[in-house]
Amino acid sequence: MSLTDTDPGSGPAARTDAGGSGPSGTGGGAPGRWAAPPRPVWEEEPTRAGLAGKGIALTAACFAILFPLWIVIVTSLSSRDTINKAGGLVVIPQDITFVAYQELLGGGQVQRAALVSLGVTLVGTLFSMTVSVLCAYGLVRTNSLGHRWILMTLLATLFFGAGLIPTYLLVQALGLTDTYLALILPSAVSVFNILVLRSFFMNISPELMDSARIDGAGDLRILWGIVMPLSRAVIAVIALFYAVGYWSAWFNASIYLTDQDMMPLQNVMIQLVQKQEPPTGLGQQIKTGQLSPLSVQMAVMVLALLPVAVASPFVQKHFRKGMLTGAVKG
What we know:
Blueprint: H1 3-6, H2 12-19, H3 48-76, H4 80-86, H5 99-104, H6 109-140, H7 147-156, H8 164-173, H9 191-202, H10 206-214, H11 219-230, H12 232-248, H13 251-256, H14 265-273, H15 283-287, H16 293-327
Helix pairs in contact: 3-16, 6-9, 6-12, 6-14, 9-16, 10-11, 12-16, 14-16
């Protein structure tokens, strides 16, 4: 008997199992068929009770998340009689109507506020991404002039802030009050996002950039043609973070804006839900009984949640690669 016959790790059966190409391997089955990733050797096989517990926990978590959203959507689509019959929030849909959405999007304060939020989100995200990408790419070059001092200054802002009053005085001194720039510039750059982008850029092979420089490419050409195409995952995630931040922001508008026509959608929702003040153009419909104040409140909430809910699934696939690779060096 030869050595290869007695070696348990070199026989045909062992090679089949290790490669995952046989029935007992992790990649067994027909070609192209999905197979679970190999389980680490230190991890035990899950028990039936464990799998059942995970299923129950995930089901409960999904129910806890989706059930309130279901109530908000159904109530926004319910008539005044249905809401009165239910005594408030509606769980079972009856007499579905889109009157609240037609009135909100038919002109007036809510439609104008939605356009303001959309414009601020698009312009602000583009500006923030431009500044963050350029800053992160500049910090990748560790031998550049003032690299260490700039990096230390950015890190210091994570622990120390000027405070609300100095920030307000600065915005006022720059003449940004009652302008849309006040909704963008004070929160345009996040140091955390810059550091995540920098860490991701540092994982890109330096040989690619060196070869491009040998061919005569400048820094902007390298950034646009090499770095950004290889960093689509982290760029998509950071762009989503900025977009959600701009869309959900309400504090800057509440302290920097006095004109109600310039208020974004989140401030109108606060005005409607907390202060119980109907938006301009809907007060008469609510007083005459054509609309229920509760259905209008729920409809504004749906409009505020809709863009984030639509955009998130398209970026979700980039979260794991973008954040983990960008946050951990190596």
